[in-house]
């Protein structure tokens, strides 16, 4: 029996916090519909207290979604009330409340006159605010997530104390964010294992992780946390989010699927919907997907070098660890360019309807290389032109 990993998608909340991204309400509703088709378990629809547009988006997504819909709030009653109001029509509402717990954040963000003069005083205030927020949210909804912002840099003893207290106050999910993308995979995995050993009531809540990608380690950190007891992965489509972004949904899901030999996990994601979702998010947010992005980049299933093309023509598994169809990409593309070999060229010409006699390939390849040296990619129209030219040339 496989263990289910809950996929918590934050494209509409943290993802939309990407510099340059902005989504209107209708676009958010359409992305939420697609996320549901994709099969994510939780859709974080926004941060209702932060703006009227965010409030409306959470309301609209709530009204039509069958998935759990989460709304973010700071650990203060006003935000929590606003989140709850926006979630009124959700079939499965979740209030997600957060507060910073690392010393860097506590000392840097919370003023002495309101929160205490010393670090110790401030820590006590934060602990009380976290517990009060969760207890208040629990009077409104049964499904409560608490996030310890900057948990990645939080003192382990203090983190355990807060996590135990918020679970006792009613949190059903405790999220351990690596807010600044600072941790290292084995270190972050140990952090989760350590938390489980310190917190007596940890089994009463799902452990979630939310990793940012400042050092390019968000997906690795997430996988390491799953190996150490986390059962919810927070992520976004195309990895968009604050600064360098969040852990990418498609990379986590496909890593779990392709390397199922290494663990006993499964997600509920319909992977064939990944590419369509990626393109929708890119076009609505205006954030392009880098060509070499794993799983959904333009080049993720393209092969250019002659050796690779030759291998692919013999057996796709030589250079592909998953099929493009498995993530909804129509097909592998053999890109013809200056690194391509004769086999790749011959196969493409055949697919275009040109059958070459053995003796002709050499001269066609020579002409092809002249074109390839001048261009980044040789397109089908270039080949048609080349073949027309070849056939009419007196020497051919
Ligand atoms: O990165 C972070 O810590 C967050 C929290 C609000 C969950 O986005
Ligand atoms: Zn975040």
From TrEMBL:
Pathway: Amino-acid biosynthesis; L-leucine biosynthesis; L-leucine from 3-methyl-2-oxobutanoate: step 1/4. Its EC number is 2.3.3.13. One of its GO terms (cellular component) is cytoplasm. One of its GO terms (biological process) is L-leucine biosynthetic process. It is an enzyme of class 2 (transferase). It comes from the Bacteria. Its cofactor is Mn(2+). Mn(2+) binds at residues 14, 210, 212, 246. One of its GO terms (molecular function) is 2-isopropylmalate synthase activity. Residues 5-275 form the Pyruvate carboxyltransferase domain. It catalyses: 3-methyl-2-oxobutanoate + acetyl-CoA + H2O = (2S)-2-isopropylmalate + CoA + H(+). Keywords: Acyltransferase, Amino-acid biosynthesis, Branched-chain amino acid biosynthesis, Cytoplasm, Leucine biosynthesis, Manganese, Metal-binding, Transferase. Homodimer. Belongs to the alpha-IPM synthase/homocitrate synthase family. LeuA type 1 subfamily. Catalyzes the condensation of the acetyl group of acetyl-CoA with 3-methyl-2-oxobutanoate (2-ketoisovalerate) to form 3-carboxy-3-hydroxy-4-methylpentanoate (2-isopropylmalate). This is 2-isopropylmalate synthase. It comes from Chlorobium luteolum (strain DSM 273 / BCRC 81028 / 2530). The lineage of its organism: Bacteria, Pseudomonadati, Chlorobiota, Chlorobiia, Chlorobiales. The gene is leuA.
């Amino acid at each position: 029996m496989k263990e289910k990993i809950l996929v918590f998608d934050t494209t509409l909340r943290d993802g939309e916090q990407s510099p340059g991204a902005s989504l209107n309400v209708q676009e958010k509703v359409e992305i939420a519909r697609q996320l549901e088709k994709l099969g994510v378990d939780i859709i974080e629809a926004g941060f209702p207290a932060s703006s009227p547009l965010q409030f409306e988006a959470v309301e609209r997504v709530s009204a039509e979604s069958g998935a759990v819909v989460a709304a973010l709030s700071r650990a203060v009653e006003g935000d929590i009330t606003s989140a709850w109001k926006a979630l009124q029509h959700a079939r499965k509402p979740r209030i997600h409340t957060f507060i910073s717990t690392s010393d860097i954040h506590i000392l840097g963000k919370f003023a002495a006159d309101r929160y205490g003069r010393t670090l110790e005083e401030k820590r006590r205030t934060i602990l009380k605010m976290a517990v009060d927020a969760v207890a208040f949210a629990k009077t409104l909804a049964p499904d409560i997530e608490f996030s310890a912002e900057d948990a990645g840099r939080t003192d382990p003893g203090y983190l355990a104390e807060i996590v135990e207290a918020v679970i006792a106050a009613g949190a059903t999910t405790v999220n351990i964010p690596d807010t600044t993308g600072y941790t290292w995979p084995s270190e972050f995995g140990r952090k989760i294992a350590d938390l489980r050993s310190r917190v007596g009531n940890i089994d009463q809540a799902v452990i979630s992780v939310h990793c940012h990608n400042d050092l390019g380690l968000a997906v690795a950190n997430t996988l390491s946390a799953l190996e150490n007891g986390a059962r919810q992965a927070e992520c976004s489509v195309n990895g968009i989010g604050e600064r360098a972004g969040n852990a990418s949904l498609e990379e986590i899901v496909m890593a779990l699927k392709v390397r199922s030999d290494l663990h006993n996990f499964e997600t509920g994601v319909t992977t064939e919907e990944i590419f369509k979702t990626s393109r929708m998010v890119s076009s609505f947010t205006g954030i392009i997907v880098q060509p070499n992005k794993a799983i959904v980049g333009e080049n993720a299933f393209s092969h250019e070098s002659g050796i690779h093309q030759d291998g692919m023509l013999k057996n796709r598994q030589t250079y592909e660890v998953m099929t493009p169809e498995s993530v909804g990409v129509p097909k592998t593309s053999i890109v013809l360019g200056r690194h391509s070999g004769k086999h790749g060229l011959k196969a493409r010409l055949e697919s275009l309807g040109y059958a070459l006699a053995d003796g002709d390939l050499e001269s066609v390849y020579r002409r092809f290389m002249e074109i390839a040296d001048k261009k980044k990619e040789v397109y089908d129209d270039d080949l048609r032109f080349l073949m027309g030219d070849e056939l009419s040339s007196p020497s051919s």
